[in-house]
Amino acid sequence: MSEEKLQNLLHVSTVINPPESFVKNANVKSYEEEYKKFLDNPEVFWAEVAEELFWYRKWDKVLEWELPYAKWFVNAQTNITVNALDRHVKNGKKNKVAFFWEDEFGNEKVVTYGSLYTLVNKLANALKRAGIKKGDRVVIYMPLVIEQVAAMLACARIGAVHSVVYAGFSVPALRHRIEDAEAKMVITADVTIRRGRAIPLKQIVDEAIRDLETVEKVVVLRRLKPRVDLIGEKEIDFYKFIENEPSYCEPEVMDSEDPLFMLYTSGSTGKPKGVIHTTGGYMVGTYYSMKTVFDLKDDDIFWCTADPGWITGHSYIVYGPLVAGATQVIAEGAPNYPDFGRWWKLIEKYGVTIFYTAPTAIRMFMRAGEEWPNKYDLSSLRLLGSVGEPINPEAWLWYYKIIGKEKCPIVDTWWQTETGAVMITTIDGLPMKPGKAGKPVPGVIADVVDKEGNPVEADKGGFLVVKYPWPSMMRRIHKNPEKYESYWKTIPNCYFAGDVATKDADGYIMILGRADDVINVSGHRIGTMEVESALVSHPAVAEAAVIGKPDPVKGEAIKAFIILKSGHEPSDKLIEDLKYHVRMELGALAVPSEIEFVDKLPKTRSGKIMRRVLKAKELGMDPGDLSTLED
Ligand code: PRX
């Protein structure tokens, strides 16, 4: 593509058609027909998908709902691990590779469906023997290793509810999640390796569970030599734990609506909330999207660069791809360590065909220069995906041109922890518009509406909503029914996602960002209140307000405004102290990139900080209605 053509594309509202060869072979031949099939009879549509999977007992009814609650595949029984493992092992795929794993040093592991099956079964037996029963919560705090995936599946095998905590979270963040879930067990590792450095995880667990009585056992994957010490009867080595276990564990028969996992995510309150997903609907929803959104075929090599600590890893490393029988690549560590060629080298080495990553990574590689990907043969790629935040047209086109060589469609997938699976994108064959996510996936009725729920005019901003239940929707928020119901109460008869968006005359939805006090840093959701609470827990801070500011690589960066307590003076050292404090309280991803000391914060008369006023001032924008401002 010439530079001139590229510039034109950026300025005209561009439409790019996927290559004909792709469309001809796509799993879904026509988006319109598939969508119509869904609209004609949603229950028949989803039943047909579900029929492809294994159930101990089929459903009496596909869907039963009374908003805000819905049940999918009512009274059906299954176990997701039977679909993710047993089904493939018994159908000739025992030796098919499930995962190619690599670390930053190039050490590799090849794990077949057969060997993953054995590992999961042994671990499931060990969990049972340790007293973990159906419904018990198990926290998994591990790096991206095979044992992490196996730990999730072993819980699912016996009906225990896993809560995976991303290994970048710090002691208080981990403790809150263990405590809120009343977890009986924590599965962890001695270390995770990032940028060649070992980050001690076990030590963080030790501190996080101090005096927490619910935690009966800590299972530790020991990777380093000499091995870290284990203390007391509570702690056990991962491989010793499973050593003498039989290699088959009878799967727990799960009701379709039995919880499968919980996952904490940030909202507009100070504490993250535990989103609960259930078994049958989540399984069917993620499986369907593997085949349609990602066009997965039996010989594909799929690589989703997320971590199972986030929903993207749950749905598109663990459950979706394994239920669909995919071969995947996973890589522990940083994308640009030891150099900016790491990811492209892995694509070449393993012949990755479908690659799914986040805009923040694309922008980082864009800055590093195309000479890095150009060193490697990326011709195996046939489909690219993006997730987590809006992808700007410049990054989209770079991805399309430099990585996809203008022959791979890009699916810009909009979805959330709460939605469980992809909701909006351009599935196989739909023309693409850089910067616009696209249309609702078949099975989803989404729209952009005003506060009353009326559709807004084309290209006008509004709230992104979903108007009909979908199988992989969250079912509850742990111990917080009001919070759950609030998703469905803000806008009449709709699920309100928290995002603002526009829809064009062709029905393409463009996500503009969050409508609430959530910041999206490198595709990770961070609550302003979480960061503010962390800051005010520092002895020098009287008050804090936090906003998201546009950032060319991260999407948004965190800026904090701080009022100091008397006796404390602003200084560079204090700024560093405060950043360190947030890192210790929440984790590296929540550290503000800018801190400004102020004497006053804009507040409403009732004392609430008006972050939008701060943000408008910071960005030189109109602050809007100021009638509630204190003075
Ligand atoms: O604001 C949207 C943004 O990420 C939020 C969901 O975050 P989380 O639950 O952590 O899940 C992220 C991965 C699924 C959304 O409310 N978001 C996600 N995908 C996109 C996006 N914004 C724009 N375009 C996307 N493709």
Automatic annotation (TrEMBL):
<dbReference type="GO" id="GO:0016208">
    <property type="term" value="F:AMP binding"/>
</dbReference>
<feature type="domain" description="Acetyl-coenzyme A synthetase N-terminal">
    <location>
        <begin position="31"/>
        <end position="84"/>
    </location>
</feature>
<dbReference type="GO" id="GO:0005829">
    <property type="term" value="C:cytosol"/>
</dbReference>
<keyword id="KW-0436">Ligase</keyword>
<dbReference type="InterPro" id="IPR000873">
    <property type="entry name" value="AMP-dep_synth/lig_dom"/>
</dbReference>
<dbReference type="InterPro" id="IPR025110">
    <property type="entry name" value="AMP-bd_C"/>
</dbReference>
<dbReference type="Pfam" id="PF16177">
    <property type="entry name" value="ACAS_N"/>
</dbReference>
<dbReference type="Pfam" id="PF00501">
    <property type="entry name" value="AMP-binding"/>
</dbReference>
<protein>
    <recommendedName>
        <fullName>Acetate--CoA ligase</fullName>
        <ecNumber>6.2.1.1</ecNumber>
    </recommendedName>
</protein>
<dbReference type="InterPro" id="IPR011904">
    <property type="entry name" value="Ac_CoA_lig"/>
</dbReference>
<feature type="domain" description="AMP-dependent synthetase/ligase">
    <location>
        <begin position="91"/>
        <end position="475"/>
    </location>
</feature>
<keyword id="KW-0067">ATP-binding</keyword>
<dbReference type="InterPro" id="IPR042099">
    <property type="entry name" value="ANL_N_sf"/>
</dbReference>
<dbReference type="Pfam" id="PF13193">
    <property type="entry name" value="AMP-binding_C"/>
</dbReference>
<dbReference type="InterPro" id="IPR020845">
    <property type="entry name" value="AMP-binding_CS"/>
</dbReference>
<keyword id="KW-0007">Acetylation</keyword>
<keyword id="KW-0547">Nucleotide-binding</keyword>
<dbReference type="GO" id="GO:0019427">
    <property type="term" value="P:acetyl-CoA biosynthetic process from acetate"/>
</dbReference>
<comment type="similarity">
    <text>Belongs to the ATP-dependent AMP-binding enzyme family.</text>
</comment>
<feature type="domain" description="AMP-binding enzyme C-terminal">
    <location>
        <begin position="530"/>
        <end position="608"/>
    </location>
</feature>
<dbReference type="GO" id="GO:0005524">
    <property type="term" value="F:ATP binding"/>
</dbReference>
<dbReference type="InterPro" id="IPR032387">
    <property type="entry name" value="ACAS_N"/>
</dbReference>
<dbReference type="GO" id="GO:0003987">
    <property type="term" value="F:acetate-CoA ligase activity"/>
</dbReference>
<dbReference type="InterPro" id="IPR045851">
    <property type="entry name" value="AMP-bd_C_sf"/>
</dbReference>
